[in-house]
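Hey L., structure's done. Input below.
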Amino acid sequence: MIHDDFTTLAVIVGVAAAAGIVANRLRQPLIVAFIAVGILAGPSGFGWVEGGDDLELFARLGIALLLFLVGLKLDVHLVRTTGPVALATGIGQVAFTAGIGYGLALLLGLDATTALYVAVALTFSSTIIIVKLLSDKRELDQLHGRIAVGFLVVQDIVVVLVMIGLTAFGDRGDSSLAGEIGEVATKGAVFLAVLVLATRYVLPTVLSWAARSQELLALFAVAWAMTVAAISDQLGFSIEVGAFVAGVTVASTPYRDAAGARLVGLRDFLLLFFFLDLGARLEFTDTSTQLFTAAVLSLFVLVGNPLIVMVIMGAMRYPARVSFLAGLTVAQISEFSLILAALGLDLGHIDESTVSLITIVGLVTIGISTYMILNSQELFDRLVPLLRHFERRDHKPDVAQGAERFDAIVYGLGRYGTHVVSALRHAGARVLAVDFDPRTVANHQRAGGEVVFGDAEDIDFLEALPLATTPRVVSTIPSIPATTALLHALQHQEYRGQVAVTALDDRDASRYRTLGADVVLRPFTIAANETCELLGVPADTDAPTSPEGVQP
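Output:
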């Protein structure tokens, strides 16, 4: 409970803002600052707040908005487009982490129920943190970024199912299991059926009225989330599940992005109270005895989770670099792990010391994994000799039999690369395409294209290509490390043909020419000049082509 009402609340929010500035300077997610402030303001710190009804109400509203926005942004299409790897990696990582984590927790002396909660808490990674970090690094559209977001969506679905199971069966007394399942299934079916009907016949019309005012749209979104969450809570499915489902219903409308953008700030503010409430409940009386357990579990999350992802993706023929960068995104536990712990505490399944243990693991893993992700390429460069063991080596190119020569080898079948390959083939050139996404390779092979699975950074792979009879090598990959590695490898092979690479700014273009590139492709510059020609405006070839060269 907040004691001195508004004044104390103002002090706490001010401290949270200051902590947020420090966290931002240290390149840490705000969740770390919020947890630290919660502990500082709780009984273990200055005792400014205690667990109470008022604080808990704000906390539950913050969680409801968080789950509403997760449902609002849920893009099941993303899971489909990233192919089997999203489902296999998402479900496989959850299953293996939970199984190994459960055994590890038992070995550390935890009882069966506590070990189960801890193991499940270790499986989930923060979609919010990962998407923010990958977006800042401009890696969301890269292969490892798309795969990571895909299996994080799978994790979000799993965590909601876990919460449904806990709230539905967690407090049923002595009733039979068959009766519980039947009751839950009946309630759930009726609940979902009503929501489906409302989503199809009522919600679009009401949202179109509300969308005439941005403020009214935000208010209606909050009202809808709270209403569905309250109904879900009354049916025994918890406010979290209801809020998530409410978000999913709005996600199918044209107003999802506008509503989500208006609520992000409110969500972040209200989540502060969840972490304050969490900090007020934490008991650090057993901290000394928990340090070893927390260290072992943190190490498992930081190292074990990425290894699990790398093994799964390696078995699916993804190169070491892609699987490593995707694996780093699961090297922390998420805010959902803390919500799950709080739910277990409310149900009486675990005690405050277990919540404290999970929170410590969360602080450690979120803090360290953030730096790991921000410096992912440097880590890969240092560990690449070891990481190659997680890569299947049976993917040497099997070029068309009887082919005397290719006119070009093109690396990368993204949006730009696909158009380049198509244009070359349309001009009569014989092209061997190379891509490191097995799904893309399979799709192009089914379409009749000559394409092989390979990585631009794999020197052994390059040695197996028909370089001696191919007059030009083209890379449409915008990645600086991949392009640099390819240029070095071609120099090592003493390749004498024409080399063309892709650069997004002047600095990279100059660097690639120094490394031996004969032609530097500038997709945005080419598109801009084409646009000028279509508009009847002469293109200025001397105009600046990168942000560094733009004059005010």
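DSSP finds 24 helices and six strands in the chain. The longest helix spans residues 287-315.

-- N.
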